[in-house]
Amino acid sequence: MVATSNMKNLIGTVACTLFLTVNGFYSSSDDVVELTPANFNGEVLQSDSLWLVEFYAPWCGHCQSLTPHWKKAATALKGVVKVGAVDADQHKSLGSQYGIRGFPTIKIFGSNKNKAEDYQGARSSQAIVDSALNSLRSMVKERLDGKSSGSEQGRQSSGGRKDVVDLTDDDFDNKVLNSDDIWLVEFYAPWCGHCKNLEPEWAAAAAEVKEQTKGKVKLGAVDATVHQMLASRYGIQGFPTIKVFRKGEQPEDYEGGRSKADIVARALDLYSDNAAPPELLEILNGDILKKTCEDYQLCIIAALPHILDTGASGRNAYLKVMMQMAEKYKKKMWGWLWMEAGAQMDLEQSLGIGGFGYPAMAAVNYRKMKFALLKGSFSEQGIHEFLRDLSMGRGSTATVGGGALPNINSVEPWDGKDGELPVEDEIDLSDVELDDLGKVEL
């Protein structure tokens, strides 16, 4: 008989637990707002209100004991403080995000929604209400003192991430799909810990990618909990998810690492796949030299033999080698320049060019005013080895003579033709007697 009674009690307990698991502790008639990953960001994190949020599990006895007090406190605070509840057993991602290790856990979301505070008071309705009102007074005082409010939550639009483009359901097609630029787009959720870890890396990468690709590769971000149409459209099921968008092509998943270096490397690969090689410019004046060396990490400067020494075919052969190298190293974002030997003697002297004859080559770091000289052959293989060593931090460097690039002569551009010897003035000997030419005065 006792066993039968115990069995009935067990069945009742299991049934009650199942009922609570399915239905939770709260209904639409309560003043407690049921929170889920789908509405947490919009209801809590983007709210200006003070929130008290209970994280519970339906099987937890202490949670069951708290429920009537939580409902009563919610009713008392209605219109003053928001009171919510998360079934952390069902929505484990939210529980994990806020480090929930036991039930019930109560968090207070005040002015800074990114830094929720733990509720340390008693679990009676009176204690909960008193704590809420104290927190509310503190939040109001912060606003009175001019401190930031809760509406500044989520991803901070600070200067640190000014190069990340925030994208929405309304502007995504126009900004991304209709753009000729390449886009890396992060789909995130504000409560996601991995997303928060990624944010500073994403912001730092955005700034560097913008500079190195001249804005041709952009980094964007979509709050997938707010812009759910986009998240559904691209099948976003976990956070963060990064996708690559190129005009006229299906988006592809980003499979790289999540450090700044990884993101930048992938962005530069995407850029170089679509970019034309940098232009090879003749140094005709100071503006060309200065702009090229200022705009790029390195500027590669070649001094080619005089046109009378090589002719057009020989010069074009050297230029072809340089253009092949510019194509090979285009993802490095270097500038490429050339000049005729002797046309810019001050520049040659400041770079130590000419000591090994012509053609010669120097790689110049304008910011550091350092340069390195090509010691090998002026060939595809020789230049490749020179630039490869530079890329790996090998090879010797020297300071640009005088600590700055010298003044540059303005010259006419090469016309693409063979050079011509200067025409010498003819000497008229008609009035000179030949016999006089042979006389030598003793």
Molecular structure report:
This protein is an alpha/beta fold and 442 residues long. The chain is built from 14 helices and 16 strands. The protein has helices spanning 2-23, 40-45, 61-76, 92-97, 125-144, 172-177, 193-212, 228-233, 260-274, 286-295, 307-328, 345-351, 380-391, 434-438, and strands at 33-35, 51-56, 82-87, 105-109, 117-118, 164-167, 182-188, 217-223, 241-245, 252-253, 280-282, 299-304, 335-340, 360-365, 370-373, 398-399. The strands form 3 sheets. It has a 6-stranded mixed sheet with strand order 11-13-12-14-15-16, with helices on both faces. The protein has a 5-stranded mixed sheet with strand order 1-3-2-4-5. It has a 5-stranded mixed sheet with strand order 6-8-7-9-10. A hairpin with a 4-residue loop joins strand 14 and strand 15 (370-373). Helix 3 (61-76) crosses helix 5 (125-144). The longest helix has 22 residues, at 2-23. The termini are far apart.
Topology of helices and strands:
Blueprint: H1 2-23, E1 33-35, H2 40-45, E2 51-56, H3 61-76, E3 82-87, H4 92-97, E4 105-109, E5 117-118, H5 125-144, E6 164-167, H6 172-177, E7 182-188, H7 193-212, E8 217-223, H8 228-233, E9 241-245, E10 252-253, H9 260-274, E11 280-282, H10 286-295, E12 299-304, H11 307-328, E13 335-340, H12 345-351, E14 360-365, E15 370-373, H13 380-391, E16 398-399, H14 434-438
Parallel strand pairs: 1-3, 2-3, 6-8, 7-8, 11-13, 12-13
Antiparallel strand pairs: 2-4, 4-5, 7-9, 9-10, 12-14, 14-15, 15-16
Helix pairs in contact: 3-5, 7-9
